[in-house]
Amino acid sequence: MTPLHSKRTFCHVLLATATALAALPSAAQSYPDKPIRMLVGFPAGGGVDIVARLLAVEMQKTLGQPITVDNRAGAAGNIATEAVARAAPDGYTILMGNTGSLAINPALYTKLSFNVLKDLKPVALVSTSPLLVLVNPSQPAKTLGELVANAKQQKGQLNYGTGGAGSISHLAMELLKSETGADLVHVPYRGGAPAVTDLLGNQLQVVVEGVPIAAPFLKSGKLNALAVTSTRRSPAVPDVPTGAEAGFPNFTATAWYGVMVPAGTPAPVIAKLNAAANAALKDPGLLEKLALQGSEPAGGTPAAFDDHLQKEVTRWAAAVKTSGAKVD
Fold first, then answer.
1. Alpha-carbon separation of residue 40 from 116, 155, 325 (angstroms)
2. Given the DSSP bridges, would you call strands 158-162 and 120-135 parallel, antiparallel or unpaired?
3. pLDDT cut 90: percent of the chain above it
4. How many of the other CB atoms lie within 10 Å of CB of 31?
5. CA nearest 94: which of 120, 74, 115?
6. Is the pLDDT of residue 59 over 90?
7. pTM for this one?
8. Do residues 281 and 299 make contact, with C-beta atoms less than 8 angstroms apart?
9. Among 104, 207, 287, 324, which is least packed by CB within 10 angstroms?
10. Domain coordinates in residue numbering, the chain
Protein backbone atom coordinates (compact mmCIF):
# COMPACT_ATOMS: atom_id res chain seq x y z
CA MET A 1 0.00 0.00 0.00
CA THR A 2 1.42 3.39 -0.99
CA PRO A 3 1.71 6.19 1.59
CA LEU A 4 -0.89 8.16 -0.39
CA HIS A 5 -3.35 5.25 -0.43
CA SER A 6 -2.76 4.62 3.27
CA LYS A 7 -3.45 8.26 4.04
CA ARG A 8 -6.67 8.17 2.02
CA THR A 9 -7.82 5.00 3.83
CA PHE A 10 -7.12 6.58 7.18
CA CYS A 11 -9.09 9.68 6.22
CA HIS A 12 -12.06 7.55 5.10
CA VAL A 13 -12.07 5.65 8.40
CA LEU A 14 -11.80 8.91 10.33
CA LEU A 15 -14.67 10.41 8.35
CA ALA A 16 -16.87 7.34 8.87
CA THR A 17 -16.18 7.38 12.61
CA ALA A 18 -16.92 11.10 12.86
CA THR A 19 -20.16 10.61 10.92
CA ALA A 20 -21.28 7.79 13.23
CA LEU A 21 -20.49 9.82 16.33
CA ALA A 22 -22.29 12.84 14.94
CA ALA A 23 -25.37 10.70 14.37
CA LEU A 24 -25.63 9.78 18.07
CA PRO A 25 -26.86 13.16 19.31
CA SER A 26 -29.27 13.31 16.37
CA ALA A 27 -30.70 9.88 17.23
CA ALA A 28 -31.04 10.91 20.86
CA GLN A 29 -32.82 14.12 19.86
CA SER A 30 -35.36 12.28 17.71
CA TYR A 31 -35.89 9.59 20.37
CA PRO A 32 -38.27 7.87 20.46
CA ASP A 33 -39.33 7.37 16.86
CA LYS A 34 -40.58 3.79 17.22
CA PRO A 35 -42.27 1.63 19.89
CA ILE A 36 -40.48 0.76 23.14
CA ARG A 37 -40.42 -2.61 24.90
CA MET A 38 -40.48 -2.74 28.70
CA LEU A 39 -39.30 -6.14 29.89
CA VAL A 40 -40.65 -7.59 33.14
CA GLY A 41 -38.99 -10.63 34.70
CA PHE A 42 -42.15 -11.95 36.33
CA PRO A 43 -45.53 -13.34 35.19
CA ALA A 44 -48.45 -11.16 34.18
CA GLY A 45 -50.65 -10.16 37.09
CA GLY A 46 -47.88 -9.98 39.68
CA GLY A 47 -46.77 -6.86 41.51
CA VAL A 48 -43.94 -5.92 39.14
CA ASP A 49 -46.13 -6.52 36.10
CA ILE A 50 -48.96 -4.38 37.49
CA VAL A 51 -46.67 -1.44 38.23
CA ALA A 52 -45.01 -1.79 34.80
CA ARG A 53 -48.32 -1.69 32.95
CA LEU A 54 -49.64 1.24 34.95
CA LEU A 55 -46.47 3.22 34.30
CA ALA A 56 -46.21 2.27 30.61
CA VAL A 57 -49.68 3.61 29.84
CA GLU A 58 -48.80 7.03 31.25
CA MET A 59 -45.19 7.22 29.99
CA GLN A 60 -46.24 6.64 26.40
CA LYS A 61 -48.48 9.71 26.56
CA THR A 62 -45.38 11.85 27.18
CA LEU A 63 -43.07 10.00 24.78
CA GLY A 64 -45.54 9.79 21.92
CA GLN A 65 -44.75 6.14 21.21
CA PRO A 66 -46.38 2.95 22.50
CA ILE A 67 -44.64 1.02 25.29
CA THR A 68 -45.29 -2.72 25.18
CA VAL A 69 -44.82 -4.74 28.35
CA ASP A 70 -42.97 -7.97 27.56
CA ASN A 71 -43.07 -10.61 30.32
CA ARG A 72 -39.88 -12.70 30.41
CA ALA A 73 -40.58 -14.63 33.57
CA GLY A 74 -38.06 -16.97 35.14
CA ALA A 75 -35.01 -17.25 37.39
CA ALA A 76 -36.39 -14.66 39.84
CA GLY A 77 -36.25 -11.94 37.21
CA ASN A 78 -32.76 -12.75 35.91
CA ILE A 79 -33.91 -13.71 32.40
CA ALA A 80 -35.39 -10.28 31.71
CA THR A 81 -32.56 -8.44 33.46
CA GLU A 82 -29.95 -10.22 31.34
CA ALA A 83 -31.92 -9.58 28.14
CA VAL A 84 -31.93 -5.83 28.83
CA ALA A 85 -28.28 -5.84 29.91
CA ARG A 86 -27.39 -7.38 26.53
CA ALA A 87 -29.77 -5.23 24.45
CA ALA A 88 -28.74 -2.35 22.21
CA PRO A 89 -28.25 0.79 24.33
CA ASP A 90 -30.69 2.87 22.33
CA GLY A 91 -33.61 3.27 24.76
CA TYR A 92 -35.96 0.93 22.91
CA THR A 93 -35.51 -1.99 25.31
CA ILE A 94 -36.00 -1.03 28.95
CA LEU A 95 -36.53 -2.95 32.18
CA MET A 96 -38.93 -2.73 35.08
CA GLY A 97 -36.95 -4.30 37.90
CA ASN A 98 -37.52 -4.63 41.61
CA THR A 99 -35.65 -5.10 44.87
CA GLY A 100 -35.20 -8.80 44.25
CA SER A 101 -34.01 -8.75 40.66
CA LEU A 102 -31.74 -5.72 41.01
CA ALA A 103 -30.49 -5.68 44.60
CA ILE A 104 -30.86 -9.19 46.06
CA ASN A 105 -30.09 -11.46 43.09
CA PRO A 106 -26.54 -10.14 42.58
CA ALA A 107 -25.62 -11.64 45.97
CA LEU A 108 -28.02 -14.58 45.95
CA TYR A 109 -27.06 -16.05 42.56
CA THR A 110 -23.45 -17.18 42.28
CA LYS A 111 -23.27 -17.55 38.48
CA LEU A 112 -24.90 -14.47 36.97
CA SER A 113 -23.58 -13.58 33.51
CA PHE A 114 -24.22 -9.87 34.02
CA ASN A 115 -23.42 -7.19 36.58
CA VAL A 116 -26.37 -5.01 37.56
CA LEU A 117 -24.21 -2.03 38.51
CA LYS A 118 -22.01 -2.22 35.40
CA ASP A 119 -24.28 -3.51 32.64
CA LEU A 120 -27.37 -1.43 33.45
CA LYS A 121 -28.10 2.23 34.10
CA PRO A 122 -30.86 3.55 36.38
CA VAL A 123 -33.60 5.72 34.89
CA ALA A 124 -36.11 6.29 37.68
CA LEU A 125 -37.25 4.83 40.97
CA VAL A 126 -40.98 4.33 40.41
CA SER A 127 -42.59 3.29 43.67
CA THR A 128 -42.03 1.66 47.04
CA SER A 129 -44.14 -0.83 48.94
CA PRO A 130 -43.67 -2.12 52.51
CA LEU A 131 -44.10 -5.62 53.85
CA LEU A 132 -46.35 -6.72 56.70
CA VAL A 133 -45.67 -9.15 59.54
CA LEU A 134 -48.86 -11.20 59.61
CA VAL A 135 -50.24 -13.63 62.19
CA ASN A 136 -53.41 -15.61 62.64
CA PRO A 137 -55.67 -13.95 65.27
CA SER A 138 -55.55 -17.18 67.27
CA GLN A 139 -51.84 -16.65 67.90
CA PRO A 140 -50.99 -15.26 71.36
CA ALA A 141 -48.67 -12.55 70.02
CA LYS A 142 -50.53 -9.26 69.53
CA THR A 143 -47.44 -7.10 68.96
CA LEU A 144 -44.09 -7.59 67.24
CA GLY A 145 -42.40 -7.38 70.64
CA GLU A 146 -44.53 -10.24 71.94
CA LEU A 147 -43.75 -12.31 68.84
CA VAL A 148 -40.00 -11.80 69.34
CA ALA A 149 -40.30 -12.70 73.04
CA ASN A 150 -42.26 -15.86 72.25
CA ALA A 151 -39.74 -16.87 69.59
CA LYS A 152 -36.92 -16.54 72.15
CA GLN A 153 -38.77 -18.65 74.69
CA GLN A 154 -39.97 -21.30 72.23
CA LYS A 155 -36.73 -21.81 70.35
CA GLY A 156 -37.25 -23.41 66.95
CA GLN A 157 -40.96 -24.02 67.54
CA LEU A 158 -42.38 -21.06 65.62
CA ASN A 159 -42.37 -21.08 61.82
CA TYR A 160 -42.56 -18.17 59.43
CA GLY A 161 -43.49 -18.43 55.76
CA THR A 162 -42.39 -16.33 52.80
CA GLY A 163 -42.75 -16.34 49.03
CA GLY A 164 -39.38 -18.06 48.64
CA ALA A 165 -35.82 -18.49 49.86
CA GLY A 166 -33.79 -15.34 49.22
CA SER A 167 -36.91 -13.20 48.76
CA ILE A 168 -37.06 -9.79 50.41
CA SER A 169 -39.57 -11.23 52.90
CA HIS A 170 -37.13 -13.99 53.86
CA LEU A 171 -34.19 -11.62 54.22
CA ALA A 172 -36.21 -9.07 56.20
CA MET A 173 -37.06 -11.69 58.81
CA GLU A 174 -33.47 -12.90 58.90
CA LEU A 175 -32.42 -9.33 59.70
CA LEU A 176 -34.97 -9.25 62.54
CA LYS A 177 -33.69 -12.59 63.86
CA SER A 178 -30.09 -11.37 63.70
CA GLU A 179 -30.95 -8.17 65.56
CA THR A 180 -33.14 -9.70 68.27
CA GLY A 181 -32.00 -13.28 68.71
CA ALA A 182 -35.52 -14.52 67.91
CA ASP A 183 -35.50 -18.20 66.89
CA LEU A 184 -37.99 -18.69 64.07
CA VAL A 185 -37.78 -21.39 61.39
CA HIS A 186 -38.12 -20.32 57.76
CA VAL A 187 -40.60 -22.17 55.53
CA PRO A 188 -40.21 -21.07 51.88
CA TYR A 189 -43.19 -21.23 49.50
CA ARG A 190 -43.55 -20.73 45.78
CA GLY A 191 -45.14 -17.33 46.15
CA GLY A 192 -46.81 -15.40 48.93
CA ALA A 193 -50.37 -16.57 48.29
CA PRO A 194 -49.89 -20.22 49.36
CA ALA A 195 -48.02 -19.06 52.47
CA VAL A 196 -50.97 -16.86 53.45
CA THR A 197 -53.33 -19.77 52.82
CA ASP A 198 -51.40 -21.90 55.31
CA LEU A 199 -51.36 -19.02 57.80
CA LEU A 200 -55.14 -18.80 57.57
CA GLY A 201 -55.24 -22.52 58.34
CA ASN A 202 -52.91 -22.13 61.34
CA GLN A 203 -50.22 -24.28 59.73
CA LEU A 204 -47.79 -21.38 60.15
CA GLN A 205 -47.32 -18.90 62.96
CA VAL A 206 -46.09 -15.92 60.90
CA VAL A 207 -46.02 -14.78 57.27
CA VAL A 208 -44.21 -11.76 55.85
CA GLU A 209 -45.99 -10.47 52.77
CA GLY A 210 -47.04 -7.35 50.88
CA VAL A 211 -50.20 -5.29 51.25
CA PRO A 212 -52.13 -6.49 48.15
CA ILE A 213 -52.27 -10.13 49.28
CA ALA A 214 -52.87 -9.29 52.95
CA ALA A 215 -55.41 -6.46 52.65
CA PRO A 216 -58.61 -8.52 52.17
CA PHE A 217 -57.80 -10.72 55.18
CA LEU A 218 -56.94 -7.74 57.38
CA LYS A 219 -60.27 -6.12 56.54
CA SER A 220 -62.19 -9.31 57.30
CA GLY A 221 -60.32 -9.86 60.56
CA LYS A 222 -58.96 -13.22 59.43
CA LEU A 223 -55.38 -12.01 59.87
CA ASN A 224 -53.63 -9.47 62.11
CA ALA A 225 -50.67 -7.29 61.08
CA LEU A 226 -48.11 -6.78 63.85
CA ALA A 227 -45.86 -4.34 61.99
CA VAL A 228 -45.14 -2.71 58.67
CA THR A 229 -41.53 -2.71 57.48
CA SER A 230 -41.40 0.86 56.17
CA THR A 231 -39.84 3.77 58.07
CA ARG A 232 -43.25 5.42 58.41
CA ARG A 233 -46.77 4.07 58.54
CA SER A 234 -48.29 3.02 55.24
CA PRO A 235 -51.36 4.92 54.05
CA ALA A 236 -52.73 1.58 52.90
CA VAL A 237 -52.69 0.23 56.49
CA PRO A 238 -52.45 3.33 58.69
CA ASP A 239 -53.30 1.52 61.93
CA VAL A 240 -50.33 -0.85 61.68
CA PRO A 241 -47.21 0.35 63.57
CA THR A 242 -43.76 0.48 62.01
CA GLY A 243 -40.92 -1.71 63.19
CA ALA A 244 -39.42 1.30 64.94
CA GLU A 245 -42.67 2.02 66.76
CA ALA A 246 -42.74 -1.60 67.84
CA GLY A 247 -39.28 -1.21 69.35
CA PHE A 248 -37.10 -2.45 66.48
CA PRO A 249 -35.72 0.58 64.61
CA ASN A 250 -33.53 -1.47 62.26
CA PHE A 251 -36.41 -3.63 61.06
CA THR A 252 -36.95 -1.91 57.73
CA ALA A 253 -37.35 -3.57 54.34
CA THR A 254 -39.13 -1.79 51.53
CA ALA A 255 -39.87 -3.43 48.22
CA TRP A 256 -39.35 -1.05 45.32
CA TYR A 257 -39.71 -0.91 41.56
CA GLY A 258 -37.50 0.95 39.10
CA VAL A 259 -36.80 1.46 35.39
CA MET A 260 -33.39 0.52 34.01
CA VAL A 261 -31.71 0.64 30.58
CA PRO A 262 -28.59 -0.97 29.11
CA ALA A 263 -25.27 0.64 30.02
CA GLY A 264 -24.14 2.96 27.26
CA THR A 265 -27.59 4.40 26.62
CA PRO A 266 -27.10 8.10 25.70
CA ALA A 267 -27.74 10.52 28.56
CA PRO A 268 -30.37 12.48 26.57
CA VAL A 269 -32.37 9.27 26.07
CA ILE A 270 -32.19 8.47 29.78
CA ALA A 271 -33.28 12.03 30.53
CA LYS A 272 -36.34 11.69 28.27
CA LEU A 273 -37.35 8.39 29.88
CA ASN A 274 -36.83 9.87 33.33
CA ALA A 275 -38.97 12.90 32.50
CA ALA A 276 -41.73 10.64 31.18
CA ALA A 277 -41.63 8.48 34.32
CA ASN A 278 -41.80 11.51 36.61
CA ALA A 279 -44.68 12.96 34.61
CA ALA A 280 -46.52 9.63 34.88
CA LEU A 281 -46.07 9.62 38.65
CA LYS A 282 -48.01 12.89 38.88
CA ASP A 283 -51.11 11.45 37.20
CA PRO A 284 -53.98 11.21 39.74
CA GLY A 285 -55.35 8.03 38.18
CA LEU A 286 -51.98 6.29 38.37
CA LEU A 287 -51.45 7.39 41.96
CA GLU A 288 -54.84 6.03 42.95
CA LYS A 289 -54.09 2.68 41.34
CA LEU A 290 -50.67 2.48 42.99
CA ALA A 291 -52.30 3.18 46.36
CA LEU A 292 -54.62 0.20 45.83
CA GLN A 293 -51.47 -1.92 45.47
CA GLY A 294 -50.07 -0.54 48.71
CA SER A 295 -47.40 1.35 46.74
CA GLU A 296 -46.28 4.94 47.16
CA PRO A 297 -44.84 6.94 44.24
CA ALA A 298 -41.13 7.72 44.24
CA GLY A 299 -39.72 9.45 41.16
CA GLY A 300 -36.60 11.60 41.16
CA THR A 301 -33.42 11.76 39.10
CA PRO A 302 -31.38 8.90 37.61
CA ALA A 303 -28.54 9.88 39.97
CA ALA A 304 -30.81 9.56 43.00
CA PHE A 305 -31.96 6.12 41.86
CA ASP A 306 -28.35 5.11 41.22
CA ASP A 307 -27.41 6.09 44.78
CA HIS A 308 -30.41 4.17 46.14
CA LEU A 309 -29.55 1.09 44.08
CA GLN A 310 -25.92 0.97 45.19
CA LYS A 311 -26.92 1.24 48.86
CA GLU A 312 -29.54 -1.48 48.43
CA VAL A 313 -27.10 -3.85 46.70
CA THR A 314 -24.68 -3.43 49.62
CA ARG A 315 -27.38 -3.84 52.25
CA TRP A 316 -28.96 -6.95 50.80
CA ALA A 317 -25.59 -8.57 50.10
CA ALA A 318 -25.02 -8.47 53.87
CA ALA A 319 -28.49 -9.90 54.49
CA VAL A 320 -27.93 -12.75 52.02
CA LYS A 321 -24.66 -13.57 53.77
CA THR A 322 -26.42 -13.60 57.14
CA SER A 323 -29.18 -15.86 55.84
CA GLY A 324 -26.78 -18.29 54.19
CA ALA A 325 -29.06 -18.45 51.12
CA LYS A 326 -27.35 -19.16 47.78
CA VAL A 327 -28.53 -20.24 44.34
CA ASP A 328 -26.11 -21.79 41.82
1. 15, 40, 24
2. unpaired
3. 75
4. 21
5. 120
6. yes
7. 0.82
8. yes
9. 324
10. 36-129+255-323, 130-228
Average pLDDT over residues 37-62: 93
Q: Which among 236, 217, 250, 243 has a CA at the least distance from the CA of 292?
A: 236
CA distances (Å), origin 241, targets 139, 144, 178, 238, 245: 18, 9, 21, 8, 6
Decide: helix, strand or coil at residue 315. Answer: helix
Instruction: Pick the closest to residue 91 from 53, 37, 41 (CA basis).
Output: 37
Q: What is the pLDDT of residue 27?
A: 66
- Say if residues 131 and 168 touch (Cβ distance below 8 Å): yes
Which residues have CB under 8 Å from 97's CB, separation 6+? 41, 48, 77, 80, 81, 257, 258, 259, 260
State whether residue 67 is helix, strand or coil.
Answer: strand
Domains 36-129+255-323 and 130-228 share a fold: yes
- pLDDT band, very low/low/confident/very high, at 20 (cuts 50, 70, 90): very low
Q: Which amino acid is at 32?
A: P
Compute φ and ψ for 298, nearest 5 degrees. Answer: -115, -80
The CATH code of the domain at 130-228 is 3.40.190.10
Q: Which CATH number fits domain 36-129+255-323: 3.40.190.150, 3.40.50.2000, 3.40.50.880, 1.20.140.10?
A: 3.40.190.150
Strands (E), 33-183: 36-40, 67-71, 93-98, 120-135, 158-162
Omega into 35 within 30° of 0, i.e. cis? no
